[in-house]
Every structure is written in structure tokens, then in C-alpha cells.
Design a protein that fits this description.
The chain has 14 helices and twelve strands. It is α/β, with parallel strands linked by helices. Strands 9-8-7-6-10-11-12 form a seven-stranded mixed β-sheet.
Length: 424
Amino acid sequence: MSKVIVSTLYDSDVFKMACRQFDKAADAISLPEAIRDRTKYPRRCLAVALPVKRDDGSVTVFEGYRVQHNLSTGPAKGGIRFHQSVTIGEVAALAMWMSWKCSLAGLPYGGAKGGVVVDPNQLSPTELEHLSRRYMQEMVNFLGPQVDVPAPDVGTNEKIMGWMMDTYSNHVGHISPAIVTGKPISLGGSQGRREATGAGIAYFVKKYLEDLKIPVGKATVAVQGFGNVGSETALALQNYGAKIIAISDYTGGIYNPKGIDIKKALAYVQYARVLKDFSGGEPITNEQLLELKCTVLAPCALERVITEKNAGKLKCRILAEGANGPTTNGADKILDQREEIELIPDIMCNSGGVVVSYFEWLQNLQNYYWSRDEVMEKLYVILDRTKDAVEYQKRKFKFNRRLAALTLGIGRVAEAKAARGLFP
């Protein structure tokens, strides 16, 4: 008889949300009790203190985490988040979703995630470098090209990945580009990696618009979040011909029913660092953006923004989850009753980033590099395969699309764990 674990280490709303998703999927495919807890709970976690010398000579100690959820299907894979609201529970939930995402896409990876409790905007470039290198130094014995391969996430970027690769390489005594993905091209990064997540979201949106027989040129799009994922999603959809009517970041949003010039918005943000006071439309709040009438709503910021309070007020035809976990369990129940909204769930919708991270890792290991066209062509093949598998699962078992995606991802991880057995 399997003993059920009740974990208190990761206690948080977002971890409980991920666990409820798992439980629903496990019940749907009658996952045996003997394998459930092994598949559900993280394999291991690490919490570290990160002392950093500030520019004024003082020392601040930051807290950092790394959660490795699954190591049964390959080295763990997942981003590192620098954000002031990071908790170990949030990191654990994100690591769980990475496990299902990698498995769903057919990648030979487990899931992991990292985080540091810090507002990176409050650090100077030198302090940010010191923090990034210190994080890698503290984690160095738990990471490796065949153990755990980090990538950028909220608050981190390719420059930070470059610092972390250099730190690890100095530790092992030789250059090791495969230790992280999302690096600068000059350090072994992949063509197409920076825009991969947004390009993948836009590709899925285009495919589902085609299924609904809605011309992409007549589609209106609202994107919450204008970091790497949101901005690249907006840019790719605009290049497909869609009209972007609203964008936002943490300072607020911009609405223009005639369409926003995304290239101008990107140029403004590069200069001002935030969207606030951008003149491309009228100001709106993030909450108002979610309730705009549009063809496509793409939440591409943080988790749990679509809740029981606003799920009934959405006026979109397609909900494309660019962020991880943007929809709460309660909101899911409401959306499940709204047949007019087509959901593209997060572990499917935003998987383009980890797919091209996989390509980057492969290129690093073999020291042979592909062109951008080759990368994007290979990406779209995997995204098409993922969409076909999810749609088949959805039809076969009469699941909604989130449950179809989760049962596929979770089922494959559970199958691998069962096949490997338990080490005595």
C-alpha cells in the first residue's frame, strides 16, 4: 500500500494549484497509487544564501532556490527567475509544470526551476553580475549538462546565462556551453532561442485560428506582459497579420482599437524600460486588458491572473496561455463551461522556448550549429506533433484541452518511472 505524502515544504497557493491539476489528471487516467506520489512530488530541492557585495561596500544576503522535480526522463530542465515575490512553493510548482511540458513535447528532459528573491531592477549591472555568478557557484554541484540545465525566466536574460556559463566553466576547468541555454549566440546560444517562446505561442494561435476558420488578418489580440515572451508573441502575431489592440507590463497597459505598432513599443521600452507613458494608445489597467473584447487573449506575465472573479468576464475567442499557470483551478471550472472560448493550455502553448533550448543543448553537445531557418523548421514540426497528440487525446477521452495535455505529459513521466522501478 502506497503511503500518501502531505508535503508542507512547498506550501503555497500556486503549488496547491499545480497539485490539484495533477490529481485531476491522475484520476482521469487511473494512475496507480504506487506511482502517484513519486510522479507528483519534487525529487529534491536546494535553498541557498547568496551574499553579494554592493557598490557602496555593504553586503546583502539574498535567498535562492532550485527545485528538481523529475530526473527519471533525462537531465532536469527549467529557467531561473529573479523576482521579489519568488517562493520555494512557486518554484516547485513551476518545476512540476516543466516536467509535464518537456514530456508532452517529447523532449528527453525532466523538470526543474530556480529562483532568487530579488527585484533585479534595484541592482546595478555589477551587482546583478555578482548575484548571478554567486547563484551558479552555490548550485554548481547540483547542475551539469547531464544533470540539470538552467535557462532564462522572468527577470533573467541571455547576459545572465552567459555569466552563469562562465562561472560553471571556470569551476570545471574547461568551457561548458551546454550547462545553460538561452545564452548569447557568441557563447554557443542557438539562433531563434530568444524569440522561440513567443514564436511558438503565435504559431499555435495561428493554427487554432485556422481550425476556427478565422482569418489571422481579421484577428484582434490583447497581450498581458511585455517582457521577452509577451513582446515576441505580439511581434510574431503582428507579422502574421493580426491586429494587436492592447499590451501591458507591471506599470499598466496601452489600448488602441486601431492597432499598436509593436516595433515602436519595443523601441520605447528599450529606452524607457517600461511601457508607462508610451503614446501608442490610451492607458488601461492590467485587469481591464484581460476583459477586453478580442479574438485572442494572451496572458504572458505571471501566474494566477485569471481567477473566479474575471473568468466569466473574458470576451476572447482563444485564450493562449503564454505564462505558466495563469489560470486558477476555480477559473478553469468556469472556462470549462464557456464553450465559445478555445483554451491553449500553458504546458502546450509556451513550450516553444524549451524546445529550442533543447536544440541549443544538442548543438552545444555536438559542437555543430544550425541556421535560424533550420531551428524554426524543426520547432514547428514538434509543435505540430504536440498539437496533434493533444487533439487526439481530447477527442478520444472527451477531455478538455488542458486535461488532455496534462494527462499526456503526466502519463509519460509516470510510465518512465514505473519502467525504471525503485532503487532498493
